[in-house]
Design brief:
The structure holds two protein chains of two kinds. Chain A is an all-alpha fold. Chain A has five helices and no strands. The longest helix of chain A is centred in the last third of the chain and has 33 residues. The radius of gyration of chain A is 21 Å and the shape is elongated. Classes of the chains: A mainly alpha, B mainly alpha. At the A-B interface, helix 3, helix 4 and helix 5 of A face helix 1, helix 2, helix 3 and helix 4 of B.
C-alpha cells in the first residue's frame, strides 16, 4: 500500500516537475528536493524494525555490539551522502554531488581506522621485537 | 574447548551474514568498495578474535574507545569545552562545599575542646559559619559557642585566673538563705526546672551577680576563641541556654 502511494506521488511529482521546469526551473528543483525529503522521512521510521532484528541477531550470536553499530553507521552515512548527492545532481551540479560522495566515502573510511589500528597493533605484537 | 569453538564459529557466521546484509542495503555502487573494506576488516577481526584476546586482553573495549574517539565531532569542540567547564564548575562547587562543611565540623570540635580545656566549662554546642573568599580561602564569619549548665557562680568568679586544664576547683561556699515570699515568686520562672520555692532563692540571689560573672565568663571564652583561632571578637557569640541572651 505504501509503495503504491509513494509511486503515485512520485509520478505526480515527475509530471509536475516536467511542467514547471520550462517556466521555473528553481521550483522544479525545490519540488524534487521536497519529494526526496518526504520519502526519506516517511520511510526512516520503518528502519527501526530492521535495526531491532539486526540487534537481536547480533545479541544472540554473541558478536560485539560495536561491530553492528559501526556497520549501521556506515549504512547511514552511505544513504545520507547518496541522498544529498542525488538532490544536488538533480540541480545539475555534478561536481558538488561528487564532493558529497567523496565526503561520505572518507567518513566511511574513518570508521575503519580503529579496526585497522587494532589489527596492525596485533600483527606488530606477534612479531618478535 | 568445543563450546568456545562453536561460539567463535557462530560469531564468524553472524558477522559474515551482517556484512552481506550491509552490502545488500547499500544505496549504490559508489560506496560499495569502501563498505566492503570495512566489512572485510570486521570479518578479519572476528576470525582473529581468539588470537587477539590471547595477545591483548581487552581489544573490544579498545576498539569501542577508538570508534568513539573517531565519532567525536571536531565542530562540537566548543560545546564540549563549555560542557566540560560547566561540569568542572559544578564539581568544584560541590567539593568546596564538602571541604567547608568538613572544615566547619573540625573547627567546631577544636573550639569545643579548647574552650573546655581552657575554662573547664561544659560546651553544649559550637556552630561555625564559614564563608569563601574570592581567592579560595575560607574565613569564619560567625562562631556561636553555646555553653552548658555549668555552675556559673563558681566558674564565673574563678574564671579569670587562667587555671590549667583539668584543674579541680574548690567548691564555692554555699549559702542557704531563708526564702522571702515576694522574691520567691519571680525566681521560679527564671529557673523553670526548680519549682521548689526553697531552691529558688539561691537563683534569686544570683540574679544580681551572675550577669556580671556571666559576662566575664563569656568575654573570656570569646577571647580564648579569638586568640587561638584568629577569629574577630565581634564574630563570636557565646550563649547560655538559661540566660538566653547572646553576647
Amino acid at each position: 500500500m505504501d509503495i503504491l502511494q509513494i509511486v503515485g506521488i512520485g509520478l505526480l511529482t515527475t509530471v509536475l516537475i516536467l511542467v514547471i521546469r520550462e517556466q521555473k526551473p528553481m521550483f522544479a528543483f525545490l519540488l524534487a528536493a521536497f519529494f526526496g525529503v518526504a520519502v526519506f522521512l516517511a520511510l526512516i521510521g520503518r528502519i527501526e524494525g530492521v535495526v531491532t532484528v539486526l540487534e537481536e541477531l547480533a545479541d544472540r550470536s554473541g558478536i560485539q555490539t560495536v561491530y553492528l553499530k559501526t556497520m549501521l553507521k556506515i549504512i547511514g552515512i552511505a544513504y545520507i551522502a547518496e541522498f544529498g548527492a542525488q538532490i544536488v545532481r538533480d540541480a545539475g551540479m555534478e561536481s558538488v554531488a561528487s564532493k558529497i560522495e567523496f565526503a561520505g566515502k572518507m567518513l566511511i573510511l574513518v570508521m575503519a581506522v580503529p579496526i585497522i589500528s587494532v589489527i596492525i597493533e596485533t600483527v606488530l605484537g606477534l612479531l618478535p621485537a | 574447548m568445543m563450546v568456545a569453538l562453536s561460539g567463535w564459529l557462530k560469531q564468524v557466521v553472524a558477522v559474515v551474514l551482517l556484512a552481506s546484509l550491509i552490502d545488500l542495503l547499500l544505496p549504490n555502487r559508489a560506496m560499495q568498495r569502501y563498505v566492503r573494506l570495512v566489512a572485510g576488516l570486521f570479518i578479519l577481526l572476528t576470525i582473529a578474535a581468539p588470537m587477539l584476546q590471547w595477545i591483548k586482553g581487552d581489544f573490544g573495549a579498545k576498539l569501542s574507545a577508538g570508534i568513539a574517539a573517531v565519532e567525536r565531532q571536531p565542530d562540537t569542540a566548543p560545546n564540549q569545552l563549555a560542557q566540560i567547564e560547566a561540569d568542572a564548575g559544578r564539581l568544584r562547587a560541590s567539593r568546596d562545599d564538602q571541604a567547608s562543611r568538613l572544615a566547619a565540623v573540625m573547627l567546631e570540635g577544636e573550639i569545643r575542646t579548647t574552650v573546655e580545656q581552657e575554662t573547664g566549662l561544659r560546651v553544649d554546642k559550637v556552630t561555625v559559619a564559614l564563608a569563601g573568599q574570592p581567592d579560595g580561602a575560607m574565613t569564619a564569619t560567625g562562631v556561636t559557642v553555646q555553653l552548658g549548665d555549668a555552675p556559673a557562680g563558681a566558674d564565673g568568679g574563678k574564671g579569670n585566673d587562667g587555671s590549667a586544664p583539668g584543674e579541680i576547683r574548690p567548691v564555692a561556699p554555699i549559702r542557704v538563705e531563708l526564702p522571702d515570699i515576694e522574691i520567691g515568686a519571680p525566681a521560679t520562672d527564671g529557673e523553670a526546672g526548680q519549682p521548689d520555692g526553697r531552691e529558688a532563692v539561691p537563683a534569686a540571689s544570683q540574679t544580681a551577680e551572675p550577669t556580671e560573672a556571666d559576662q566575664a565568663e563569656r568575654n573570656r571564652v570569646a577571647a580564648i576563641v579569638a586568640a587561638r583561632f584568629g577569629i574577630r571578637t565581634d564574630a563570636i557569640k557565646v550563649t547560655r541556654p538559661a540566660a538566653g541572651d547572646a553576647y
